[in-house]
Write a structure and sequence with these properties.
With 362 residues, the chain is of the alpha/beta class. It has helices at 3-6, 10-13, 21-37, 41-49, 53-64, 68-81, 101-114, 128-131, 134-141, 143-147, 162-178, 194-199, 222-227, 240-256, 280-296, 299-325, 328-342, 348-360, and strands spanning 89-95, 119-124, 151-153, 183-189, 204-210, 230-234, 268-271. Helix 4 (41-49) crosses helix 6, helix 5 runs antiparallel to helix 11 (162-178) and helix 17 (328-342) runs antiparallel to helix 18 (348-360). 33% of the residues are buried. The model is unreliable at 1-15 and 128-136 (pLDDT under 50). Bound molecules: guanosine-5'-triphosphate and magnesium ion. Guanosine-5'-triphosphate binds next to helix 7 and helix 9. Residues 1-21 are annotated as: Disordered.
């Protein structure tokens, strides 16, 4: 008796017994359903271009997937969508937790959809792997916008490096634009490097603040002030209105001390309340002025070109790094060499060269 015939188990017990017709039919329909669940690249592209949200969501899921097969498919979809992308305005919204970003985006987004804009909201949230995605809660916080058929809200990709999340957001922007969204809003929590990443993928960068006790400039990073095209002081309602106006004056004074921007745009400071909606339409006016000006002086196009180059370089660096650190030969050596560096047995530079040479030979 051969080994094959000696096998026992449910599969061998059933060997030779033909399956009833009905099982085959249901298996076939199951397979068909499964196929239907995984649309082809062409189906996804044509779905997105005809503004089908399910296709858009599925394509973003592919972009966010860590499965290399999905990544390949996602690249094809992006390639097909690219000619239809680039036709939106991209606005970044940042601010410390609790400043009211989600509430502001809900009010601002609703304002835009009332005059026919199509708004997509994405997020770069490097902390989401820890907090299990604060923007996931936003879908319930942005109650009105979620229901709006001219809006699309996508919770952030989580559990990744900032570079990874940023790349996925960049690709999702392309997909949203191809699906007909003309205003893309990217929310990011004002911590770590995420602002810089978002600043590098948007046309207009909005810093949301709340008024404090007259020490508005304390604790605010100079870099963020420099990046901002507008500072909007939120929660200017009730007893807060007076304080918000004082804060506005203080920020205005501070901004005038900064060197002028490459865009020639003088950043604006306004106040608003995401709850009463006061000042929300002013924010749109400011942004419209910015777009008018930067289209006229050519900065808009130049900035996008520079951003494309920036992301290419970022992707190369990110890929090289992750490839380097995932090589078994490097993993095996790294800890040993780190110790040797600590003990001054080898200089940090010589150690780095040693590892890099090893990597080049792999
Ligand atoms: N009074 C007042 N409260 C506001 C305003 N905007 C937001 N809030 C409140 O501030 C709290 C935080 O608002 P969120 O919109 O969740 O803030 P966020 O910046 O998105 O917070 P994270 O996503 O956690 O970083 C909520 O309780 C809101 O109701 C406003 O204009 N006025
Ligand atoms: Mg939020």
């Amino acid at each position: 008796m051969s080994n094959f015939n000696k096998q026992t188990g449910s599969s061998t017990e059933k060997a030779g017994i033909s399956s009833p017709e009905i099982t085959n039919a249901s298996a076939i329909s199951q397979i068909k359903n499964k196929r239907r669940q995984q649309p082809s690249v062409e189906e996804l592209i044509s779905g997105i271009l005809s503004e089908n949200r399910t296709a858009l969501s599925r394509a973003i899921t592919l972009v966010e997937s860590t499965n290399p097969e999905h990544a390949e498919k996602a690249n094809e979809v992006i390639k097909g969508c690219l000619p239809e992308a680039n036709k939106s305005i991209r606005i970044g919204v940042t601010g410390v937790p609790g400043v009211g970003k989600s509430t502001f985006i809900e009010a601002f987004g609703k304002h835009l959809t009332t005059f026919g804009k199509k708004v997509a909201v994405l997020a770069v949230d490097p902390s989401s792997s820890l907090s299990h995605g604060s923007i996931l809660g936003d879908k319930t916080r942005m109650e009105e916008l979620v229901k709006d058929e001219n809006a699309f809200i996508r919770p952030s990709a989580s559990g990744e490096t900032l570079g990874g999340v940023a790349r996925k957001t960049r690709e999702s922007i392309i997909l949203c634009e191809a699906a007909g969204f003309d205003t893309i809003i990217i929310e990011t929590v004002g911590v770590g490097q995420s602002e810089t990443a978002v600043h590098n993928m948007v046309d207009f960068f909005l810093l949301l603040k709340i008024s404090g006790a007259g020490d508005e400039l304390q604790g605010i990073k100079r870099g963020i002030m420099e990046m901002a095209d507008a500072i909007v002081i939120n929660k200017a309602d009730g007893d807060n209105i007076k304080k918000a106006n004082l804060a506005k004056a203080e920020f205005n004074r501070a901004l005038h001390l900064f060197p002028s921007k490459k865009s020639s745009w003088q950043p604006k400071v306004t106040t608003c309340s995401a709850i009463t909606k006061d000042g929300i339409s002013e924010v749109w006016k400011t942004i419209s002025q910015y777009f008018e000006m930067t289209h006229e002086n050519g900065f808009f196009k130049t900035k996008r070109k520079e951003q494309n180059q920036f992301w290419m370089m970022e992707t190369i660096e990110e890929k090289l790094k992750s490839d380097f650190y995932s090589q078994p030969e490097i993993i095996a050596e790294l800890e040993k060499i780190k110790k040797a560096v600590q003990n001054n047995e080898i200089s940090p530079f010589a150690a780095a060269h040693l590892l890099l040479d090893k990597y080049k030979k792999i």
